[in-house]
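Below is the data:
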Amino acid sequence: MDGRAQRYIGVAERRARLALRQRLAGQGRAGTPEDVAGSLVALHGTDPAAVYLAVGARLADPAKTAAETGRALYDDRSLVRMHGMRHTVFVFPTALTAVVHASTGLAVAARERAALLKDMAAAGAPDAAWLKEVEESALAALARRGQATAAELAQDEPRLREQFVYAAGKSYEGVHTVSTRLLKVLGVEGKVVRGRPLGSWTSSQFRWAVAPEHPGLDPAQAQAELLGLWLAACGPATEADLKWWTGWRVTEVRRALSAIGAQPVSLDEGTGYVTDGDVDEVAAPGEPWAALLPALDSTAMGWQQRDWYLAPELRPRLFDRSGNVGPTVWWNGRVVGGWAQRPDGEIVWRILDEEGVGREALTAIEKEAERLSGWVGTTRITPRFRTPLEKELAAGQDA
């Protein structure tokens, strides 16, 4: 970061950058799921259906969304579902797995393993040496099988079925199975990843697979690389945005910004950052655009400070109590409403912010709803985290 004068980047230009770099404007739509993931860096993967819906919203031809996304995830393995920033499951390009693991996974993994051993010791369960034996046996079984559920692995390693009491005597006391906790730890450690689901692309029941091999990287270098990629896709962003998205300490964010030579710019929220050489003005897309994005979409959840694309008064209807965004309707770079699928399959939507939403916008939004309905077909989608507006629309309640 240097002493050059800061250029002001206003809301209109931020929305233009979002439209093109997030693959939402018609001229910027992608050809493959790999193109989408590469452009966004990470697709939220906590809700399995959201990955497919996010891809479909950004493909020039969405007709093969389900087949092509499944191919990328489970046949070619060019995309991988794994734990990443903020201890959240994302889908990343496979080439980024080493960067994600070194930049965000190592510290979380150490805490997760320590917590598991502590909980097992408190319950009088076997020690770390025993757990290591079970782990090695389970990984060997998984390598033999290729992909397997926890129950299938327990056929090869019965100790995975053993249980221990968690938080005995407390209000949240429960019983954990070794397989549940251990596979979670192995996932954060980058040793296993989620494989093909049981059922359709909306299923949240996954098999497990051995993680693709990747080299060990220096954490600071990995942080710089990840932040640079994300800033190229989502910049400008404030320090608060970067800290929130990565889940890192502010000192780590600042170190990474310095390492990539990020340039400061002036935003309505204060100082923001772009990658070196990305200060030139970006023109708006040639045509206005609409989009129907799914719950937990990476664009809607991309920044902590969201007033430039999401009016604060809309949030109570579009977010759940934990801060998870529901399905959103976009017009020219801002959220104007939400959508849902009813039990009969109909895609319905409602405008919450009517400013600037005229006949052209309504026609474009309806076209996007038809586009979504066309490739989803008979599949029924219920977001994992439901929001007030989504529940109203799905139930057929009037405004």
